[in-house]
Design a protein that fits this description.
It is a single chain. By secondary structure, the chain is α/β, with parallel strands linked by helices. It has a single domain, classed as Dehydroquinase, class II (Rossmann fold), CATH 3.40.50. Helix content is 37%, strand content 19%. It has a five-stranded parallel sheet, with helices on both faces. β3, α4 and β4 form a beta-alpha-beta unit. 36% of the residues are buried.
């Protein structure tokens, strides 16, 4: 049985590839899911991809991941900067958490420089475009080798 990693995506990531391509690129979330699923399989893992524009749904998915996932990769998008609720939910998850941002949040508006999620994440990958997701899957495999 492969190790399940939940990949959770926050608001507006359903528009990846369409919304502000000069910042976020032209790859869609479906492209990212396909790439990550292939990589995860090669590393002995599987991915469950989820996306919601609703904070409560993301919290529910984090809580549900406690039952069957060994790790969480999360791009909380705008909720990074506002959601203590998502941070609190992540604190209930016992496995590793990696935070991904397509853009470099530290090079953008000052309100984007702080992420509540970073307080729980073992690592943060920002500014590498959608390649950051693959980087997170690879890092997750390394982190899980010890478990």
């Amino acid at each position: 049985m492969s190790k399940l990693v939940t990949v959770i995506n926050g608001p507006n990531l359903n528009l990846l590839g369409l919304r502000e391509p000069e910042i976020y690129g032209h790859d869609t979330l479906a492209d990212v899911e396909e790439e990550c699923s292939k990589l995860a399989q090669a590393l002995g893992m599987s991915c469950r991809f989820q996306q919601s524009n609703h904070e409560g749904q993301i919290i529910d998915w984090i809580q549900a991941a406690r039952d069957d996932a060994v790790g969480i990769v999360i791009n909380p998008a705008a909720f990074s900067h506002t959601s203590i609720g998502i941070l609190d939910a992540l604190h209930t998850f016992e496995g590793p958490v990696l935070e991904v941002h397509v853009s470099n949040i530290h090079k953008r508006e000052s309100f984007r420089h702080h992420s509540y999620v970073s307080h729980r994440a073992e690592g943060v990958i920002a500014g590498f475009g959608v390649q950051g997701y693959s980087m997170a899957i690879q890092r997750m495999a390394t982190l899980l080798q010890g478990s």
